[in-house]
């Protein structure tokens, strides 16, 4: 694949209700992103979520810490990093860490919530943490 293939851009159109576009614009503004950058980022995040839910081989590889050759590190970090760097000419180390950690924190919170809803994990304020629910509890 040539380097040009990685930087070529194409137009994609979609139609959404006006209220949804307004919500996306508001959220993009909060994140200091263009609407295009916001939609691209959300689509990529959604695709990662679908892959995780489908139990595909690439998901199994990620869970085991391996990756295919196109994504060293295995969890989409390279793709996420490049997406962030495309949004601004320069981003500081601290800003990159903040952006990437925020994504992880969001995923962690969603996963914990789902596991609690499924009664597989519970939080104990008394013990100050989460634990796996066992049959005897």
Architecture overview:
- This protein has helices at 3-7, 18-30, 35-54, 57-63, 77-87, 93-117; strands at 121-124, 129-132.
- The termini are far apart.
- Helix 2 crosses helix 3 (35-54).
- By secondary structure, it is mainly alpha-helical.
- The chain contains six helices and two strands.
**Structural class, judged by helices and strands?**
mainly alpha
Q: Please, how many helices?
A: 6
Could you tell me how far the N terminus lies from the C terminus, measured between alpha carbons in angstroms? Answer: 55 Å
Share in β-strands: 5-15%
How many strands, which pairing sense, and closed or not: the largest β-sheet? 2 strands, antiparallel
The low-confidence parts are 56-74
Morphology call: elongated
Outline the secondary-structure elements.
Elements: H1 3-7, H2 18-30, H3 35-54, H4 57-63, H5 77-87, H6 93-117, E1 121-124, E2 129-132
Antiparallel strand pairs: 1-2
